[in-house]
Amino acid sequence: MKTSNLGHPRIGAHRELKRACEKYWSDRTPLEDLIEMGKSIRKENWKLQQGKGIDLIPSNDFSFYDQVLDTTLMVGAVPERYTNLQTSDNSLLDLYFAMARGLQKQGVDVIAMEMTKWFDTNYHYIVPEFTKDQEFGLLSLKAVEEFKEAKSLGIHTKPVLLGPVTYLLLGKEKEEGFHRLDLLPKLLPVYHSILERLSDAGATWVQFDEPVLATDLSDKGKRAISQVYRGIAETFPNLKTLLAGYFGDYGNNLDTVIELPICALHLDLKKGPDQLDRVLSSSKLNERLSLSLGVIDGRNIWKNDFASSLRLIQQAKRQLGQERTIISPSCSLLHVPYDLGLEKNEKVLSKEIKDWMAFAKEKLEELRSLKKLALSPDFESHQLFLDNVASMQRRRSSGLIHRSMVKQRVGQLDKTDYHRKSPFEKRKVLQESELRLPLFPTTTIGSFPQTKEVRRNRSLFKKGDLNEGQYVEYLKNETKKAISLQNEIGLDVPVHGEFERNDMVEYFGEQLEGFTFTQNGWVQSYGSRCVKPPIIYGDVSRPRPITVFWSSFAQSLTEKPVKGMLTGPVTILQWSFVRDDQPRSSTCEQIALAILDEVLDLEKEGIGIIQVDEPAIREGLPLRKEDWGHYLDWAIGAFRLSTSGAKDSTQIHTHMCYSEFNDIIKGIAEMDADVITIECSRSQMELLDAFHEFDYPNDIGPGVYDIHSPRVPSEEEILKLLQKAGKVLPPSKLWVNPDCGLKTRGWEETKNALKVMVSAAQQMRKAVGQP
Hey, what CATH class is 2-335+348-396 in? Predict the structure, then answer.
């Protein structure tokens, strides 16, 4: 019996990679320092897993930005606009970062590649771009180099490659007349080149990640899967292949994968626990095939229930034998924090709740324990098992979890609680009369730069080195400066800037009942962007107003309508580690009622525009269409519950970013937000097509510049995008705004970009005859 890890967190236990990348990007350290930091993190990860007795330790699961972009570089699928960057003076890593972030430096000005969500997670990947005559060629040997690097440390690893079918399907055709899977014959020789080099270097196992196998694959996709892995088995008979699908079960793809000549098939038994029965009972099950049992949750932080996991392990062991049974997490541990042992402050995370949890390091220990128990003839009397049973029972019987008043309020909801009083057409007339905004009104998505000074003062306040009065005075001054700047630039709808907020979800969770937090529970969202998700352990309620003071203060500084900024219930749910003892829909309704209370309190204070951000609506969509209806019913319902109590004259905005909307545009319309702002610049307004084709009834703010890139757009660039938007939507429906919040940007680039944006909006007004 073996243990296997599919992938490990790569940012460092204390976000060392984030700091190293950002220092390099800002020219404060040489490239060599960044490369050394990468080596240090990899060594630490490999040594940790070796020390925990993991049999199949992954390599090439590390990335300086994103594993999909790593693959793009590996196969040489570099878009044409970056080809001039491939000179002897530029390393592959500089080219790589330019593709991820764009580049505006020393006369070079190129936009970044598009970014979107990795399946139904809050991780983002860089979208590959393909043309009809696309050529591939081996460009990066990272996978081989990292295997050799581990080998030099005395650790024989299992290299991880993103499977070629998933890679192609995650990309986009940048011209018409072909399907990206048509490129497979050109792509496969590059994969074979990498496998040949890995084999020569001594690799025995290779893990291929094909998470598209948890989606509704077309017949063409299924044929591609079969072609890829039959070809690999034929060409590399001595390589052991582990095919890993995750984030769901194999569904109607099972017959395709179970017949493949692979050595091991991974099953995500947290998302698809019933599929083990289907696999073991299949007449097509190869008598030599091993099963990798994903019994430990790679996407949540709750301690593993050994009794439940061992039932599945023993079931597989009885039929397959222990030598064909592999124990693993459900997916890569990329999605959970590093080490629960770093949580030392019981005022932040209580000892009682901490007992219910396991981070990546603890999950490795769980793998070792499960293997030991699975090989024990009498595991139910083993102390490891008894300790786990006791921990499970302590959680179930805890008095911290349930609140009768919350459950009672949810139980009293009826249909009217999910609908605005009047239809949009009537609301729009009232809002136009109340707000008196020009055509192409300009606004931002909410946050302004969180400078080192802002973060330092927050840290001083948390440590007690600043008292509350001093901290509030500091935040007031920052808010005054932000409002003054927005007035000076000419933004029509200012925001208060969110200087008091650490994170758009964490900030709200800190002030809601039923949430707890960590000091070091960081996970990667994209690149150097890390988030510290709240933990929802019990029933949720809002004991007091959260944002009212700051929105009201900002409104007192300007005659213009200040937009109140809230995070929506689905996003708070999706970007938290959620309790697993009740349906997610029930937890989401509880959060929605808390946000509704905040909306009504903002209204009472005269805030006439309220944005309820829901960037995670699309992210939470199940991977199979047959499951969409149920999800959209409760997710859209939760958003409506959080906003439908607002007056007709109150303009409700929502924001979504880095998502494909075509398939759920009807659901987005049913949210009935008065204005939706969306990310559009990286796709060059392509995302607007879905709204146009659907004849989306409400107002839209397509993002006109990319805030995740340090470059400042030109007025001509923004005008071009607005003119493109104007061809599919009437001026009366269009708002003008950046793609997302400006929290991660510097002040100078923010000022310059917003000035350009406002000027472009003014040009659009002149073009339609409005002064």
Answer: alpha beta
